[in-house]
Amino acid sequence: MKKHSGFTTKLILTVLIPFSLSYFIGGIYRSIYAVIALPIQRDLHVSASQLGLFAAMYAGGLALTQIPLGIFLDRFGPRKVQMLLFIVASITMAGVALSQNTWQLAIANGVMGFGLAGCLMASLKATSMWFSTDDLPFANSIVLAAGGIGAISATMPSEIFLRFASWRELIAVIAILTFLVAIIIAIFAPRDEKPVKHRFTFKQELGDLKIIYGDSHFWAVGFLAVMTFASFIAMQGLWAGPWLHKVAELNDNAAARVLLALSFGFAVGLFASGVLNNIARKFNVSSYGVVIFGACLAIITEICIILQISPGDKVLWFLFGFSTQILVIDYAILNNYFPREIAGRVITSLNVLLFLTAFIMQYGFGLILSWVSSSVGMQSEAIVYRSIFTILTALQFIGLLYFVYHLHDRVLLNKDKTVHNNF
What we know:
By secondary structure, the protein is an all-alpha fold. The chain has one domain: Growth Hormone, Chain: A (Up-down Bundle). Helices cover 81% and strands 0% of the residues. The chain is globular, with a radius of gyration of 20 Å.
């Protein structure tokens, strides 16, 4: 299948739908711990640090898989790689559901990171292979919006499911869905993927990584993206639920509604990123300008949440999810900046940094909370939550300053011809 201009029926059926379903599953699993965190704590009698470790092990598994994943995606194509990974993921989810102690759950979650590592990366590789440069941001936003819908499914629907079943049965249902998506990808995804012709050499792969990590533009775009996405993953993936209970003092039902608003904002933001990018181009504003808008909105929203201007306000949490996801345009920026032959490695090189940072944030959050509760007392937890979220927001602000400083030397936000030609 060659690249096409526009969204043909064939592209929708063979690329967008199968790989959107892939990221739909990823969205469910990445968000599910915010809902099942307390049931797991009650069932397995775990501390905040152990809970943070469970979620962090998933991010760690994702991080360790990214570099080899990028190589395999470039060599064998997204269809074969994602099909095999999802089979592994469905089996591992059964292990999560059957875990009887903290170490079993942590190890299973780590392996799960391997199985679900390709949810987003294989999808973005597929769109970069078969959609034209002009259509790529919008195609990516559709795939990413599917992940947002998955995140929505992990909130209120999952909370309702847990009224009638256990968290283990919920994970088992997700495992079945994952296996079904693997079959759909195997049957419907394009089979005419072109593997890389040259022989694999470790030296050459290291050379490609050196090109990526040695590029100042990669770091300027990537640092802001990593700080923003890792902070969001840490909150949405685990700590938003406990925050709403212990800082905003909401009950289970009210907290689930706020998490639903957060996930809905996540989904809308992913889809809107491509739409905003297209609208901005009509007004002679580059993708960089859209990224700056999203980063500023995210930081302002997070400050409002930290200051408890309106505790448990669904609009604020919706804006938190919406604004952070506008920055997914960074993936299209980097994909079009580097040669197409290393597109998979560019994406996964960024994700190594992203998931390692998310691992540190999630586990570090739990360690600090456990230390405070044991040495100072539970009454100080709300202050700790707000202090940690403040640090995460400050890191995003630093990333934004670095991003703007870098662009000052190479891009004029509304006049750069290279930006309009490439993005």
